């Protein structure tokens, strides 16, 4: 029997964040999936989570766990599929660590995802989007910064994590304005910026001033507080 504890530790602490460059949200989601799975397995097998073994996580147990999510926890198909994706990722990882369990692993990997209805996402009209862009009042540094952030998100289609991780070095204003976006999985893309976006960014850089930190969205007030604390 193979204790599962050292393998799940390596998966969550090394495989996902280091080898796969998974985002913080993905790591947290996978960790929560295994928290639920181990609690379910421990209750069912009448052992503590630290006493669980990899061989116990066979297809019947995984299927019962997925059914438990839907019937007892009230999870929908999307949540169920997310937990299954975490389990399958771990099984791929274990195929190289415990090759003797390959048949068990293949059976779990064969569990199909459940079909889920895709909700139609309603898009904003031009007027609605413009109202959002104009919402921050540019009479103070915070309003100027927020307007620049909204313009940048809209123009480049940014995730929040991509926005807050941007550095000054990622922005180019001359000769043509562009931004380098660092996405998930170490993927990068360079995007041109509209004139309105460039103007909003220039206004923000003017009030941002010269600060030592390199984050594009660093606020003067935030830097002052940090400098005083140091």
Which SSEs are present, and which pair or pack?
Elements: H1 5-19, H2 24-45, H3 59-71, H4 77-97, H5 102-109, H6 126-133, H7 141-156, H8 160-164, E1 171-172, E2 178-182, E3 188-192, H9 195-208, H10 220-229
Antiparallel strand pairs: 1-2, 2-3
Textual characterization of the structure:
The protein is mainly alpha-helical and 230 residues long. The chain folds into 2 domains: 5-109, DNA polymerase, domain 1; 126-229, Intergrase catalytic core (hpI Integrase, Chain A, Orthogonal Bundle). Helix content is 57%, strand content 5%. The chain contains 10 helices and 3 strands, in the order H-H-H-H-H-H-H-H-E-E-E-H-H. The chain has helices spanning 5-19, 24-45, 59-71, 77-97, 102-109, 126-133, 141-156, 160-164, 195-208, 220-229, and strands spanning 171-172, 178-182, 188-192. Helix 2 (24-45) crosses helix 4 (77-97). The longest helix has 22 residues, at 24-45.
Properties at a glance:
single chain; 2 domains; 230 residues; mainly alpha; 3 strands; three-stranded antiparallel sheet; 10 helices; hpI Integrase, Chain A; DNA polymerase, domain 1
Strand order of the largest sheet: 1-2-3
- Share in β-strands: 5-15%
Give the C-level CATH assignment of the largest domain.
Answer: Mainly Alpha
Mean pLDDT: 86
- Count of alpha/pi helices: 10
Shape: elongated
CATH topology heading of the largest domain: DNA polymerase, domain 1
Radius of gyration: 24 Å
What is the name of the CATH architecture of the largest domain? Orthogonal Bundle
Helix fraction? 55-70%
Number of E strands: 3
The total domain count is 2
| Termini gap | 52 Å
Give me the strand/helix succession: HHHHHHHHEEEHH
Structural class: mainly alpha
Sheet having the most strands: 3 strands, antiparallel
Low-confidence runs (pLDDT<50, min 5 residues)?
222-230
């Amino acid at each position: 029997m193979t204790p599962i504890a050292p393998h799940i530790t390596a998966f969550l602490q090394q495989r996902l964040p280091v080898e796969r460059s998974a985002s913080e949200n993905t790591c947290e989601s996978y960790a929560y999936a295994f928290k639920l799975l181990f609690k379910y397995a421990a209750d069912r097998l009448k052992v503590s989570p630290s006493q669980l073994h990899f061989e116990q996580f066979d297809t019947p147990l995984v299927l019962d766990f997925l059914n438990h999510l839907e019937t007892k926890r009230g999870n929908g198909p999307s949540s169920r599929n997310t937990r299954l994706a975490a389990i399958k990722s771990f099984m791929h990882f274990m195929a190289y660590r415990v090759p003797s369990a390959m048949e068990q692993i293949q059976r779990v990997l064969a569990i199909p995802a459940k079909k889920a209805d895709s909700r139609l996402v309603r898009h904003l009209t031009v007027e609605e989007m413009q109202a959002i862009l104009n919402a921050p009042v540019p009479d103070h540094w915070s309003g100027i910064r927020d307007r620049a952030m909204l313009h940048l998100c809209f123009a480049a289609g940014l995730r929040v994590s991509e926005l807050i991780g941007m550095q000054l070095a990622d922005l180019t204003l001359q000769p043509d304005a562009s931004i380098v976006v660092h996405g998930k999985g170490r993927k990068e893309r360079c995007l041109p910026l509209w004139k309105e976006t460039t103007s909003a960014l220039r206004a923000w850089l003017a009030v941002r001033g010269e600060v030592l930190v390199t984050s594009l969205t660093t606020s003067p007030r935030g830097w002052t507080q940090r400098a005083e604390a140091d």
